[in-house]
Amino acid sequence: MANRLNQLLKQWRASKDTQKWVLATIIETDGSSYRKAGAMMMINDLGQYYGLLSGGCLESDIMLQARRCWDSGRNRIVEYDMREEEDLAWKLGIGCGGMVRILLQPVDNNNHYLQLDNLYGLLEDNQAVEYCQIIDEQLPQNSLTIANPEHQAISKPGMFSQVLKPAPHLAVFGGGVDARPVVAIALQLGWQITLVDPRTSYARDGHFDASVSLVRHAIDSLTQSPWLQQIDMAIIMTHNIKLDAQSLALVQSSSAKYVGMLGPTHRTDRVLELMPMTREQLVKPLANPVGLLLGGELPESIALSMLSEAHAFIEQQDGQSISGILTA
Asked: Which among 231, 246, 234, 240 is positioned nearest to 288, based on CA atoms?
């Protein structure tokens, strides 16, 4: 399962002292590879791993290499090179055609858990962190410092550095039946979710995962809520014009970079009249009608469309076909 780092660390923390663990980090790639430098995976001595460094073809061998870290207590560097026919990568059947270099590090009390406890705490506190790993086969020496999310880490010879950011935070306004696939897919992406709906028959506990933060207060009373300055995206889908107007007004003072609202433009005109505000007066650009043109009428298809647009927006991508097949 390819999880975000905070999810990997959550899995690790639950049994960090009862099982042996190794942190595997891609520190260099050349040519085609499934994951890029910075990708991480947690491995334990029960044969379990969380995260992926390849399409599943490297993981079994990485597991074997990890055992040497537990025996020695030292780092280990392994390289898989599909450019060389004699390399192990060919025997493993890797088809990417590139090179992947991986740093394996034992995680235990003797090396301060590679600072992963502190890293998890900072990510959970919505802090960006620069994480540095010394690239050698000696005892691990990892360090971290709080960083600006826009900071670009620079790796030096013998050191791999990267800026690790909290998982994207999505606020969903409206807890109806069609919000369930939105939340479910967003959770699969590893996003943090805040679900807002003051109506007693909506946003029920049993309908959403326990990790979702449910907010049932009146929307116009939430202006000072701390989470409002932690969200990256907002999707408004209450199916109630008054509640949509309150939600759209609220997110204007939020940290959201992306705001999408379900419904046709003529309905949005009525929402804006209630605020009252014009489109030009909105502080946040409004995606409406919301979503990418993916087709499909089911709630799951609509959820995928909305989340795809939000994902592309925060990743600063254009949402176009990689192969160009859709324009051929």
From this structure: 234
Count of alpha carbons within 13 Å of 276, Cβ hemisphere only?
1
Question: 181 preceded by cis ω (within 30°)?
Answer: no
SS3 per-residue string spanning the chain? CCCCHHHHHHHHHCCCCCCCEEEEEEEEEECCCCCCCCCEEEEECCCCEECCCCCCCCHHHHHHHHHHHHHHCCCEEEEEECCCCCCHHHHHCCCCCCEEEEEEEEECHHHHHHHHHHHHHHHHCCCEEEEEEECCCCCCCEEEEEECCCCCCCCCCCEEEEEECCCCEEEEECCCCCHHHHHHHHHHCCCEEEEECCCCCCCCHHHCCCCCEEECCCHHHCCCCHHHHCCCEEEECCCCHHHHHHHHHHHCCCCCCEEEECCCHHHHHHHHHHCCCCHHHCCCCEECCCCCCCCCCCHHHHHHHHHHHHHHHHCCCCCCCCCCHHHC
Token pair in block for residue 223: 């202006």
Give phi and psi for 103, each to the nearest 5: -100, 120
Tokens standing for residue 185: 């897919």
Tokens of 234: 């907002």
Check: CB of residue 209 under 8 Å from CB of residue 183.
yes
Could you read off the pLDDT of 29-79 as tens digits, one per residue? 887 777 889 999 999 999 888 888 876 667 778 888 888 899 899 999 999
The contacts of residue 122 (CB under 8 Å, 6+ apart) are 129, 144, 146
pTM for this predicted structure:
0.84
- Taking only the tens place, the pLDDT of each residue in 255-268 is 999 999 999 999 99
